[in-house]
Design brief:
Shape: globular
Structural class: alpha+beta
Order of helices and strands: HEHEEHEEHEEH
Largest sheet: 7 strands, mixed
Distance between the termini: 71 Å
CATH superfamily: Cytidine Deaminase, domain 2
CATH architecture: 3-Layer(aba) Sandwich
Helix content: 25-40%
Number of strands: 7
Number of domains: 1
């Protein structure tokens, strides 16, 4: 009996796939920045102030990072929320989701017009410029798509800077949604 080499006993074949780059696309995020409150509309100022005020009620004993969110509904109602931390870190919840889940539970037929977000360190009055995290963007986008109208985002940073984003889709341009699940949007 003739001894076969390893290569003869086990025939291996490797197939390489070649990818062809068809097109490079660019995603642009458009937003407005303002240097003072005077440049904003009265309702926007009130919403930012509500978010800042509620940030002092955040429960953030671990991160010491206090976030407040205020949501304006189309019936004029303002809903606020804060981040709520937990020693089991994944069990906490961000201010934006605390507010949106409450708003859509209590006022399910109302459209969300705008969400204002402010953040600060626990011991400080100086506000830090932050945007909603990925999970909050995804949660807010779900309601924007459901209501078929944009949800504006207002952010307050330090030194009196303000940022206005016209739609959640601007913050999350490539998103996971009904179409990702094979369902058509209504």
């Amino acid at each position: 009996m003739q001894k076969k080499s390893l290569e003869q006993r086990y025939s291996l074949s490797v197939t390489f796939s070649h990818f062809i780059l068809l097109k490079t696309e660019e995603i642009k995020i458009t937003f407005n920045t303002y240097s003072s409150l005077d440049q904003l509309q009265d309702w926007q100022i009130q919403l930012i102030q509500a978010a800042e005020k509620v940030s002092y009620q955040a429960y953030a004993p671990y991160s010491k990072f206090c976030v407040g969110a205020a949501i304006l509904l189309d019936n004029g109602e303002v809903i606020t929320g804060t981040n709520q931390e937990n020693a089991a870190y994944p069990s906490g919840l961000c201010a934006e989701r605390t507010a949106i889940f409450y708003a859509k539970t209590q006022y399910p037929q109302q459209r969300v017009i705008c969400v204002a977000v402010v953040a600060r360190k626990e011991e400080s009055k100086e506000l830090l410029p932050v945007t909603p995290c990925g999970a909050c963007r995804q949660a807010l986008l779900e309601y924007e798509l459901q209501q078929l109208s944009p949800i504006q985002i207002l952010l307050r940073g330090n030194e009196g800077t303000y940022c206005e984003i016209k739609s959640l889709q601007d913050l999350l341009p490539i998103s996971f949604n009904k179409k990702s699940l094979g369902e058509e949007a209504k």
